[in-house]
Each structure stands twice: as structure tokens, then as C-alpha cells.
TrEMBL record:
It comes from Pseudomonas abietaniphila. InterPro entries: DTW, DTWD2/TAPT. The keyword Protease does not apply. One of its GO terms (molecular function) is tRNA-uridine aminocarboxypropyltransferase activity. This is tRNA-uridine aminocarboxypropyltransferase. Its EC number is 2.5.1.25. Residues 2-187 form the DTW domain. GO terms for biological process: tRNA processing. Pfam families: DTW. Keywords: S-adenosyl-L-methionine, Transferase, tRNA processing. Transmembrane segments: none annotated. It comes from the Bacteria. Belongs to the TDD superfamily. DTWD2 family.
Length: 196
């Protein structure tokens, strides 16, 4: 018998995060293109980002047939948040003329690169990267480098950069609770042995 789940955050009812999820406005529009393998991941931070941001959308798939519609949003200029040749560091001035449509592929690095390979229009977008990202709070995974952030952390840092007059720190509240809950469930000794 499976445990009852919250229909909004998809967490087990006794671990629902909805009370911690904000409803924040942003000038920047966020589009997350999520690889299908991430949908049922216990730490699905992309879902938390979309639930916490009023101007965000999550689309799941590998090949996005409606990519033109998703990217050509009137009044916005699309940018891909992903490292690569010619990528520019995000700055508050990046969205001065038109606000940005910040497109984020969500998945492992390998799966995110696959999304770009399968969707040439996505790969052709001008790329932006995070400048001086903070250390990740995602203490439950091994990362390829100090600059590797979860999708939610990357979005939060990008929004702080693009809209420095606002705080998006509240987006991280459910993420922090999720991480602490996972650590508590595995036990401090197991956490130290495998992740510390």
C-alpha cells in the first residue's frame, strides 16, 4: 500500500512542504525543461521552483515539439542558463531592454546535454551562466565542482542577480527543509559516512 501524497508538492502527506512554499513574483520568466527521469526524483527541486514562482513553467519531455511556442513569448528575450562556448555571465543589466525568459534544462549534466542535442533550437539560444554562485546547500549529492547547484539554487541565484531589488531567498525554505528531512530520515551517522 503506498503512502498518501500531497497533490501539490507530491511529497508524502506527513512530509508536505506546501506551508513553506512561497508565491513570489518576478519580472524574469522561468521555463524549466525537465528530463522525464527527474519527475519522480525524491528531491525534485525544479517542481519546488515552479510552485514558488508565479512567472514560471515546467515542461517535461526529451523532444519539445512546441519549443517555438515556449520560447517565443512576447515581451521577453530567451536565454539558456547553461555553460558553454560564448556563454555570458548573468548581470542585472541583462534584462534591461526586455525581461529575460530564462530557460533551464533540468536533469543530470548528461541528461541536460541530451536535451540540448535533441532540441537544436534550444541549443542555439544565447547562453548565460551564473557569476560567483554560492556553495550548494544540496548536501546529499556528490557534485562535479563547487559551482554545481541544484536547479532551484541556480534559479534563485539567477533571480537575485537579475533582480537585485527583490529577495528570492524564500524559494530555498522548502529545499532546506527537504534536505534536513532526508538527513534526519537516514540518520546522522549514515549521512556523515556517505555525504560529509
Amino acid at each position: 500500500m503506498s503512502r498518501a501524497r500531497c497533490q501539490r508538492c507530491l511529497r508524502p502527506d506527513n512530509h508536505c512542504l506546501c506551508a513553506l512554499i512561497p508565491a513570489l513574483d518576478s519580472r524574469t520568466r522561468v521555463l524549466i525543461l525537465q528530463h522525464p527521469s527527474e519527475v519522480n526524483h525524491a528531491l525534485n527541486t525544479a517542481r519546488l521552483a515552479v510552485l514558488g514562482l508565479n512567472n514560471a513553467e515546467l515542461v517535461v519531455g526529451e523532444v519539445f515539439d512546441d519549443l517555438a511556442t515556449l520560447l517565443d513569448v512576447p515581451g521577453y528575450q530567451a536565454r539558456l542558463l547553461f555553460p558553454g562556448e560564448g556563454a555570458e555571465a548573468l548581470s542585472a543589466q541583462a534584462g534591461e531592454v526586455k525581461p529575460l525568459l530564462l530557460v533551464i534544462p533540468d536533469g543530470t549534466w548528461r541528461k541536460a546535454r541530451k536535451l540540448l542535442h535533441l532540441n537544436p533550437r534550444l541549443a542555439a539560444l544565447p547562453r548565460v551562466t551564473l557569476d560567483n554562485p554560492p556553495p550548494s546547500r544540496y548536501r546529499l549529492r556528490k557534485v562535479p565542482g563547487a559551482e554545481a547547484l541544484s536547479t532551484l539554487e541556480a534559479i534563485t541565484h539567477a533571480l537575485h542577480t537579475l533582480e537585485p531589488d527583490r529577495s528570492f531567498e524564500a524559494l530555498l525554505r522548502p529545499f532546506n527543509a527537504l534536505i534536513e528531512g532526508q538527513i534526519a530520515a537516514m540518520g546522522e551517522e549514515t549521512f556523515r559516512r556517505n555525504h560529509a
